[in-house]
Each structure stands twice: as C-alpha cells, then as structure tokens.
Specification:
The chain is mostly helical and 67 residues long. The chain is built from 3 helices and no strands. It has one domain.
Length: 67
C-alpha cells in the first residue's frame, strides 16, 4: 500500500474523487487483461499475487465509496 500512497502524493493536484475514479478505472483495466506481465518469468512469479493485490485494493476503494 506504500506504493499506492506514493502515487497519490504525486497527484495531489487532483481531488480525491477524481483521482480515485481514474485509479480505479486503471486497476480494473489491469484485472481485465489476460495477463498483466508479458514475460513468462514475471507472469509465473508475480501474476497471481499482483491480481490478488489489485483485487484487494479495489475492494478497499469500493468500501470507501470509490467503486
């Protein structure tokens, strides 16, 4: 979640509702992909964990009213 906080700090110019709407749309598009990672080694090593982390973050956003 530290990376998520760092990303948010980079876009302080955007109000929360707009930022989280854009971020949620991006994360949702990642989950819709057949693969997030294109190389086989990264796919095998990180794909499942990445999708779980994204899903967890989307659930958090939804509980906060941004989903």
């Amino acid at each position: 979640m530290v990376d998520t906080q760092n990303l948010r700090e980079e876009r302080q110019d955007l109000p929360d509702p707009i930022y989280f709407q854009i971020h949620t749309k991006f994360l949702t598009s990642l989950l819709a992909r057949e693969r997030i990672f294109q190389t086989d080694s990264f796919y095998q090593r990180y794909e499942t964990i990445a999708k779980q982390n994204i899903s967890r973050l989307l659930e958090k956003r939804k509980s906060e009213g941004y989903g």
